[in-house]
Amino acid sequence: MRFDFSPYLVIARSTFREIIRERLLYGILLVATLVTASSFFMATISFDQSSRVLENVGLASIQLFTVFIMIFVTTNSVYKDLERRVLYLLFPKPISRSEYVIGKYFGLLMVLATTLLILGGMYILALIGFDRTIITPVFSVLCYTFLEVGLVIGIAQLFASFTAPLNASLYTIGLYIIGHALPTLKQFAERNSGAATQHLLDVCYYILPNFEKFDFKPAALYRLPVPGQQVFWAIFYGVIYICVVVYLTILVMRKREV
Predict the structure, then answer these.
(1) Could you list the residue range(s) of the whole structural domain that residue 84 is in?
(2) Assign residue 47 a region: left if phi > 0, alpha if psi is -120 to 50, beta otherwise?
(3) Which of 41, 54, 167, 209 could form a disulfide with 179 if both were Cys (CB 3.0 to 4.6 A apart)?
(4) Residue 243 burial (CB < 10 Å; 0-12/13-18/19+)?
(5) Is residue 81 part of a domain?
């Protein structure tokens, strides 16, 4: 039996074109210009640490801007599909709800890739004038950022499938902040909290998404080698968690009346 990819491709292309038509790229280009300009400014006032400051500020800016852009895009795109009754037109046709969710997710990944290509491309061009040896580490960090924000997109899509865009955005941002703070909270609880609090944080640590697993910026910044096993488990963790979140979104959409 031949697997048909065409429904997923149709939804993915439709999602990508819809978002691009909303002039998102103009905003991305403006953000890219601001990021590059701010990085140059920070580098010029830091004297002998110019390349390191440029790398640190630039990577952090790209990550934050990309996360917020994709949260906004994801929640609003899903909401518009529900609000415009687009799903009424899709589901009577040979497109299931699972095909819609997965196709929508891949379309959002295409937007993410475009965003990182523009932001990362302009940033790497800025780096060439300072230190070409940091281009390879920066490129690897951008790849990990793609995986991290891919998980953020899945979470935002899940929240957007059952709540309003503003609520979905706030929930996603909150979970993103908590996901980066989980290791610190766990260490703090082990030193200063009782057994009950430690058990609760242990459960949260293993259930909630741990975004610190994708943070390889310090290693890139200080040229530290990253063990291959750590890279493998970060990728494995991200892919598995994305699959779980997308599956939960499919379950929600199957229960939802559209």
Answers:
(1) 6-255
(2) left
(3) 209
(4) exposed
(5) yes
Q: What is the pTM of this model?
A: 0.87
CB 87 within 8 A of CB 81: yes
User: Where would I find the H helices in the chain?
Assistant: 6-21, 24-44, 50-83, 86-90, 97-128, 135-160, 165-192, 195-207, 217-221, 228-255
Buried b (16+ CB within 10 A) or exposed e, 50-77: bbbbbbbbbbebbbebbbbbbbbbbbbb
pLDDT of residue 255: 83
Q: How far apart are CA 105 and CA 85, in angstroms?
A: 19
Structural domain contains residue 51 = yes
Per-residue pLDDT at 32: 62
C-alpha span between 150 and 58 (Å, rounded): 20
Query: Which comes out higher in pLDDT, residue 249 or 226?
Result: 249
Which of 29-33, 54-58, 125-129, 213-217 is most confident? 213-217
Instruction: Give the mean pLDDT of the chain.
Output: 81
The answer to whether position 1 is within a domain reads: no
In DSSP notation, 7-19 reads: HHHHHHHHHHHHH
Output the CA torsion sign for 102, 103, 105, 110: positive
Residues 226/216, Cβ–Cβ less than 8 Å? yes
- Per the structure, the count of domains in the chain is 1
Question: Residue 214: in which H helix or E strand, if any?
Answer: none
Q: Is residue 216 part of a domain?
A: yes
Return the residue matching tokens 């518009």: 80
Q: Which of the pair, 181 or 136, is modelled with greater confidence? A: 181
- Angle (nearest 5°) at CA 170 between 30 and 68: 20
